[in-house]
Amino acid sequence: MISHPHNRGYGAALRTGFDAATRDAIFLMDSDGQFDPIEIERLLALYGPDRVICGYRIRRRDTWVRRLYHKAFFALVRLGFGPTTRDVNCAFKLFPRAVGQGLRADGALVSTELLVRAHRSGYRLMDVGVHHYPRTTGRATGADIHVVLRAFRELWELRNNPAMLDGLEPPA
Q: Are 155 and 76 in contact (CB under 8 A)?
């Protein structure tokens, strides 16, 4: 089991898992009950070593505040980096292990960093609709002002330090 002695953030937790992965592909799904793991079949049907398969939430079940933050934030992402996927922060993705390794974001920007970096390196980003359910465990932090401000700070750092997006080899 892999753990941190204290909470370092969502991105740090994901990065630790991605860096410890030993298989060719990584499947990401948060454990808060918002997704049905059986829907991985939808992603597997499209997966290849040159692709990042990204779920997008069908009928998103989040509060209006969280949806508003999401729209505003990813409008800035599109302005700064161009289009990525339909639902950047959907925590239901399947991708080659190399895509998840060497990331730097400690907060929620980790998904943006992963997708922008993969796209710029030549990976094909593909969207797949997945059902979205109300959270059954854990506590939502996506609308917390501290989390939002951290995401904007990380976005600023990523935008002003393009070298953070380097280091990923193009797909074979």
A: yes
Q: CATH topology for 10-165? A: Spore Coat Polysaccharide Biosynthesis Protein SpsA; Chain A (3.90.550)
The DSSP symbol for 164 reads: G
Mean pLDDT of 135-149: 71
Residue with tokens 């049905």: 36
16 Cα distance to chain centroid: 14
Can you tell me the distance from the alpha carbon of 67 to that of 115, in angstroms, rounded to the nearest whole number? 20
Distance CA 106, CA 4 (A): 13
| Strand arrangement of the beta sheet that strand 92-96 belongs to | 25-29, 92-96, 51-58, 124-131
Q: 136 and 32 in contact (C-beta within 8 Å)?
A: yes
Whether pTM > 0.90 for this model: the answer is no
On whether the CB atoms of residues 34 and 108 are closer than 8 A, the answer is no
Whether residue 93 has pLDDT greater than 70: yes
